[in-house]
Design brief:
This protein has 335 residues and is α/β, with parallel strands linked by helices. The chain has ten helices and 13 strands. It is 37% helix and 17% strand.
Length: 335
Amino acid sequence: MRIGFNFVNGLFDTTLDDFLAFSAQYGATDVVLQSSTSKDSRSRWSVVPGDHRWELPDLECLRKQVESYGLHLEALENVPSMFYDRIMLGDPGRDEQIENMIYTVRNIARAGIPIFGYNWMPSSVWRTSTETPGRGGSKVTSYDHSKHLGAPFTHGREYSEEEMWENLEYWIKIITPVAEEEGIRLGILPADPPVPSVGGIPRLLTGFEAYRRLIEMVDSPSNAIEFCQGTFAEMPDAAGDGIYDMIRYFGERNRILYVHFRNVSNAGDPFHEEFINTGHVDMYRAMKLYREIGFDGVFVNDHVPNTIGDTDWGHRGRAYANGYIQAIMDVVDRR
């Protein structure tokens, strides 16, 4: 098991070089680099340039930049939503986007980057507040679905759950053989928040049965999960032993690619995010379970609370969470 940091390039007042130096200084071996997929995202918030697809020289340059700090580029997380929004929605132009995504996935693999993580949320991540009071006056994000009932459609109309599943299956059956051929693994982030629908778009990947349906579409190690433990912990399925059962089920089947190792207040709606050691998930128990099932991938922290004097990216909060992860990882490894 390895420790890493993740970063959305261009979204914060921190350069990529400063992020990489920070990661190396705080003991990371790996990084995950993200592109923003918010509703107003632009190519400047992407890890590499491109309006429709990514080119091999740009990806190789990025990998070499990471390696120059003694780090390993474990995964790229998301492309700009404009790369594949028509694929998700089944809109005209879908097949052209699929060809561009095949081109991009091949280039990610050929650049020596082993994992591509993405999401199936055309309407992006939703929160009710980013300033909910946390421990000691810190600020955390929260979500209450009752506050978003009747929200305007984000994409012009209401889509049905089954058509969204059909669109996902169409994509999975095309892209998985490409990934197998290129030796790259692909994983989908769970829907955050894991509620049935927001803005007229069903969320799909909101619980255990949904993820089992996903991995059974094409039984392949390349059709896997970007395991955001925080979002899995928000799911109603996570109550009681549910979160540990999901870690075990998908981990034993080698479908967990890397882990967003974070905590939340409770399973189900409404919820708020927490410090890594104050939510409903026993993080030590979770880490022991990852070790038990033989997971050997990367843990990154994410969505840290905003504390006094911190930066927009959360250098203090991420250093705190990183130290916590390294400590329990050391304890588990030595038992």
